[in-house]
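User: I've been trying to design a sequence by hand for this structure and keep getting stuck. Would you show me what you'd pick, starting by listing the structure so we're on the same page?

Assistant: Good idea, let's start from the same input. This is the structure you sent:
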């Protein structure tokens, strides 16, 4: 797709979704990684149950395992069964483009789109809702939804009626500054959640240190260290979301041409790409993208274009994305 001079990666129209770059290896890797994490966290849940039932280990240690590992196991298991594994079975079929979104309605974070006499309801974070309100187009494959430029699918559900309390999902143009602000706002929310988790982990660490019956055990000393470490980490991490919530001036984007190979998916499910580009000062340098946003590297590899916030410099890491799209992440330039 090319809108307002900006090319982005989109599913191929009329041919199987398996032809979309990166999608198949991404789903396969996510299935393996999430499946492995499901088993690992499930074993830790079982360990917590055994420690609680057998006695002699206090309350804090078994409870910490159950509190942290049970939701993790459920989350990863759901990701496999309802997410990557489920979509993997559909990629032999083509995506369907839905544009205009006439009659679409919104209730909180859930968008309801009329489709074939029913309603496709999907929950979208604020950057994706902002992009969808401006572009009015999405790609559908079964219950899965993808937006232009965004490689990570979102699972929805077909219903007979939209979500109660929905209001019309009106067209709303978005400036690059507002799109960037919504992405930073979402990232700040993730960081605040991480801070809360670290504080809870710190409390469990101190509790385990005081509660564990075998006072000469390494558990007593190590859990105390973990408690202090998590507390310090929480304080340090709390600065990041505050910085992200600062109001910034309208961003200045620098567009670069990139020569690269295809994007690849690493062991952890991150999409990465390496290539070469010429900076505004005329220097030819290497570049590498991949990390927090899987869509960034996929777009660079598919379009040969890289959009950087500000003026990039050799040997530095810069923030990059796609103007007007919910794509944002780091890119590193060589010397």
């Amino acid at each position: 797709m090319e809108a307002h001079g900006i090319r982005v990666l989109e599913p191929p129209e009329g041919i199987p979704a398996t032809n979309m770059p990166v999608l198949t290896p991404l789903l396969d890797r996510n299935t393996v990684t999430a499946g492995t994490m499901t088993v690992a966290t499930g074993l830790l849940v079982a360990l917590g149950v055994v420690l609680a039932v057998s006695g002699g280990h206090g309350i804090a240690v078994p409870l910490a395992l159950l509190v942290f590992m049970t939701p993790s196991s459920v989350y990863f298991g759901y990701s496999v069964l309802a997410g990557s594994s489920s979509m993997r079975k559909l990629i032999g079929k083509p995506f369907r483009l839905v544009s205009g979104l006439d009659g679409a309605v919104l209730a909180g974070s859930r968008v309801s789109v009329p489709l074939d006499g029913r309603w496709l309801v999907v929950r979208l974070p604020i950057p994706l809702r902002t992009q969808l309100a401006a572009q009015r187009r999405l790609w559908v494959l079964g219950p899965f939804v993808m937006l232009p430029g965004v490689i990570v699918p979102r699972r929805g559900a077909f219903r007979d009626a939209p979500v109660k309390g929905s209001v019309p999902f009106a067209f709303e143009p978005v400036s690059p500054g507002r799109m960037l602000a919504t992405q930073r706002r979402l990232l700040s929310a993730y960081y605040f959640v991480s801070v809360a988790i670290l504080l809870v982990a710190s409390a469990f660490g101190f509790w385990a240190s005081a509660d564990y019956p075998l006072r000469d055990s390494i558990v007593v000393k190590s859990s105390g260290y973990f408690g202090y470490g998590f507390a310090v980490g929480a304080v340090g991490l709390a600065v990041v979301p505050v910085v992200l919530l600062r109001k910034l001036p309208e961003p200045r984007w620098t567009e670069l041409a990139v020569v690269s190979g295809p994007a690849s998916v690493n062991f952890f499910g991150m999409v990465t790409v390496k290539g070469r580009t010429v900076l505004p000062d005329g220097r030819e340098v290497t570049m590498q993208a991949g990390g927090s946003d899987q869509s960034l590297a996929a777009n660079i590899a598919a379009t040969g274009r890289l959009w950087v916030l500000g003026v990039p410099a050799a040997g530095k890491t810069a923030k990059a994305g796609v103007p007007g799209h919910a794509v944002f992440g780091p890119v590193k330039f060589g010397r």
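That's my pick for every position. To get oriented when you compare it with your attempt: The CA atoms of residues 321 and 327 lie 5 Å apart. Residues 96-168 form one domain.
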